[in-house]
Amino acid sequence: MSKEMRIAKIIDTTSVVINAGEDDGIKKGDKFQIIGKKGVEVLDPETGDFLGTLDDLKATIIANTVYPHMTIAESEKHKIPGMGNPSTLASTALTQGMFNSIPKELLEPHYVHEDLNVDKTQITGSFKKSDKPIQVGDLVVKE
Questions:
Q1: Closest CA to 74 of 123, 1, 12, 138
Q2: Nearest to residue 33, comparing CAs of 8, 48, 66, 55?
Q3: Which domain of life is it from (predicted)?
């Protein structure tokens, strides 16, 4: 890909829009690195040839929703382990009744997006969900 891609919009602390999409060869699941300033030049110790730069890596993002000219990308997900099986935990000093009040998502492993280190003054949000009722004739698009 020869196009220089950039962050076009910051949706929230886990999602951004990049200025390239399907027409640029991007597919859902593609990974990208957000690079800050160009880093230190690396030279071959024997020839002195320029080998590249060690750039400032800000984050890794993954294409989630790809449009023709833009892509919504999200931070990587990380697994959060659960507390475990309530029946196993019940053998401890805690009583089974206490486990009934613990939300299921705390007991089972789940995945959460890592927050990106974004300039929070540039967060603009995403699509606004309409509060208007669905009507005959409304446009429908395949996901």
A1: 12
A2: 55
A3: Bacteria
Residue where the block lists tokens 């929230």? 12
What per-residue confidence (pLDDT) applies to 141?
44
Say if residue 109's pLDDT is above 80: no
Q: Residue 90 is encoded by which pair of tokens?
A: 């019940």
pLDDT of residue 138 exceeding 60, the answer is no
The pair phi, psi for residue 109, each rounded to 5°, is -60, 145
Report the sign of the C-alpha dihedral through residues 108, 109, 113, 117, in that order: positive
Phi and psi at 105, nearest 5°, equal -65, -20
Cα 23 from Cα 71, distance rounded (Å): 11
pTM: 0.64
